[in-house]
Amino acid sequence: MHKQEMMRLTIRDILNAVGGRLISGHEGAFANGVSTDSRTIRRGELFFALKGPRFDGHKFIDDVVKKGAAGAVVSAEVRGLPLQAVSRGQEPGSGSSSTQFGIIHVEDTLKALGDLSAYWRKTHPVPLIAVSGSCGKTTTKEMIASILNTSRCILKTEGNLNNLIGLPLTLFGLNNIHKAAVVELGISMIGEMKRLAEICKPNIAVLTNIGEAHTAILGSIEGVAAAKGELFQGMGTDGTAIINIDDPWLLKIANNFTAKKVTFSLKSEADVMLKDYSLDNAKGMSATFIVMGKEILVRLKYAGIHNLSNAAAAIAATFPLVVAKEEIIEGLYSAEPIPGRTEIISAASGITIIDDTYNANPLSMEASLKTLSSVVGGGRKIAVLGDMLELGDIAQDAHRKIGRLVREAGIDIFFAMGSFSKDFARGAIEAGMSPERINVATDKTSLIKGLKNIIRQGDVILIKGSRVTAMEEVVEELKIAK
């Protein structure tokens, strides 16, 4: 077994990677880590002074000096540092224990962070799988990681570190013991995916689906497809794109790049396709997939048919890395549902909660309603939905559409909350749902009170909304309800 090596970046390496100018310090000195947070930075790490609308890392340079940081990458003039931090000589290669503080000036610290992580990734050329999509990307990433982790040491994205800050911080975790990496990429703007792909240089890329998410910025589903599709555009013939052929937008994108392709589907013939499945009510599923002509029977701890598509994507993504059938079976069964993402909770009061509160867009709302609808037996099916945000001009129509889907899914009782709650309700009524079964709440307090007044043992309750709506607070209240 190889001993895990500590990160070691010389100032010279950093300057070459980011194209900066050394203000103080010596090129032979080194950093043993990277941080963007002055509160948690450790001795010997390099601090990137990021700047945004509500924060400016340059204000905390003094703090990181006192904590023993090796240096800082800045885009503004640094004043007022302790004299010993910038004035004492330091012998090249003497390390971060010296009192001299290295300062590297760049035009853009966020770009420099990405450039340095791209350099670090280049020095660790392990197979890297990048996962994105309008919904399902986190679950798919976890399934892929679980499959690979059965036979090799891997690096994966933790939490929501999937953007232009989180991805670099994830990649800095690469070291000599890793045999593969699985990273999640999240975007909200045109050009962002291209930059993320430039940084991580994926060998294998997965887009789970294309839906109406972030349309307030991306403009339309066409804009979403164009922005997400940047993931595949930079891949050459040595890369592999994992294509969901059930998604018409991804089929269209698939014609515009040269990478090798591995397809998956729940409906049609593909490299990885679903043969049949059975639901264990809201507790999980069993499914048979045909993978390159061979059948594989798997069990999942996830609820919701949409998670079969995520599982198919995970199988397809690991196929180029030559995983064994047994690794797929063990890995998928070992993958655990993530809190707030179709998580099944049995409350003491006898109700079942489907906690899908992490975020919401029209595609994920539809998938969650299908999950609730698929629950067999038990009591009433109750949908509790909060606003879907960042939809721009399509917001009202999108909420009305989801309201109609509530009725079509056979939901017994509907609670809607938020600025678009009346649009939710209007759609449900237009589809034929009785107004008596629809509750429009003005705030979370009245929503929780209304729910507690009507729930009874055996009810199955879906709770979902965009991140800002904090619908997990409703979950917590229902978990302790009597």
Largest sheet: 9 strands, mixed
Q: Based on the coordinates given, report the CATH architecture of the largest domain.
A: 3-Layer(aba) Sandwich
- The average pLDDT value, as a whole number, equals 92
Number of strands: 24
- Classified in CATH, the superfamily of the largest domain is Mur-like, catalytic domain
Helix/strand class: alpha/beta
Overall description:
The protein is an alpha/beta fold. The protein has three domains: 9-107, Udp-n-acetylmuramoylalanyl-d-glutamate--2,6- Diaminopimelate Ligase, Chain: A, domain 1 (3-Layer(aba) Sandwich); 124-334, Mur-like, catalytic domain (UDP-N-acetylmuramoyl-L-alanine:D-glutamate ligase), CATH 3.40.1190; 343-479, Protein-Tyrosine Phosphatase, Chain A, CATH 3.90.190. The chain contains 17 helices and 24 strands. It has a nine-stranded mixed sheet with strand order 11-12-10-13-14-15-16-17-18, sandwiched between helices. Helix 4 packs parallel to helix 7 (192-200) and helix 14 (395-408) crosses helix 15.
